[in-house]
Sequence to fold (444 residues):
Amino acid sequence: MTTIDERFFKTHPLSLETATQAKDMFPDGVTHDIRYISPFPIYMQSAKDGIKWDIDGNRYIDYVIGHGALILGHGRKEVVDGLSSQIKDGTHLGGSTKQEIQWAKEIMNLVPCAEKVRFVASGTEASLMALRLARAYTGKNKVIKFAYHFHGWHDYLILGEPRGVGGVPDKVAETVVVLEPNIESVERVLQQDDDIACLILEPTGAHGGQLPVPPAFLEALRSLTEQHNVVLIFDEVVTGFRVSKGGAQLRYGVTPDMSTHAKVLAGGLPGGAVVGKKDILDMIQHRGDPKWDSQKRVAHPGTFNANPLSSVAGTAALSIIANEPINERCDVLAERLKSGINDVLIRNEIDGFAYGVSSIVFIGLGIAPEFDSNGICVVPHDKIRKAADPRMVGALRKALLNEGIDTQGGRVWRLSAAHTESNIDDSIGSFEKALDAVRKDGFI
Ligand SMILES: Cc1ncc(COP(=O)(O)O)c(C=O)c1O
Fold:
């Protein structure tokens, strides 16, 4: 057994015991693919600000931060107060509420393309609905997506990454064109195929920018999709309200026809939204014409759409983002983290570097840094992918947990405004210790 695993077993006895029960209950013993850790996952108990504790009492600086949802950190007072009061008034009122109006107002105030809003329950639902709207609006059938860009797990958009595409019908797969993110391939497909309804992408690149795309690519896509009457959709589930108050579309000044949102949108509760051009969103609207309403219209029920708890949490979070320098603070903390990580790598003579737009930090190991004049990492995507030896990344993730740092899969660190400078400095020290353990165990 590696020394990392030995320590992991020793410091997490209650997690091990709990995992033993879960193993026969859930596939892989977990309830989200990314929570799977070999030899067993850790069970979390409580959290406040940028810190969380597991059931063994171990303390972690939390860079998973609600899978990116908690840009304000855990337990932000305004969100908790709003929720406490709403719980007493009812968690589901089975009707329209003023709370959903407030929530939509905050979104329309912040997101440039948001002429209208439709709430859903998750990011997966948001991209599913965006595709349906685009097909109904254009009368065309297919979608272009980019390899490795993630938009949730439904049949259409789970394609394009070796994640497990079992169960996706061939007929559905035929309607999804997966391309490498370069403008030449998009241009070629749009010239040859007049059945493309929409193009969807993560606007900072796959996985929130782990495989970055430059802003000029967004501009080129904007004009190309306009020329071909193709609906341009930004998946801002990760970037929305994070890379700027109004997401990547505000940061880079490129307005899509629609964008999809979740995570930060709902203040740490479940929730999502499709926003965009009025004419497209109004494909959901009844017209009182029986033929339109039954044949052309896009139907959209959903038990938890804009439920009052998500509405109040989302409203509280978005109004704080609108009025306080939350994104700016996260960006400053991210720069401090990146620079500390880079110093550690240089000092220890380990190939690699930290990069990422705004408050999402990625660690690339086994590769040399290459940046363009805008500070966007331009290392070829296949090089970034190949550098990530899964055994080494797994060891790093566990070594970091042993040092009290929880990251998304070892290489993705997301900041919140509740992290402190001393959290960052402590994390840099812990990263150095974790790297040392990974090296001693022979993974580097
Ligand atoms: C860019 C992106 N789109 C969509 C989703 C799916 O969102 P959800 O997990 O809320 O279904 C995710 C989830 O991580 C995501 O990162």
About this structure: Residues 3-73+325-440 form a domain with the Aspartate Aminotransferase, domain 1 fold (CATH 3.90.1150.10). The mean pLDDT is 97.
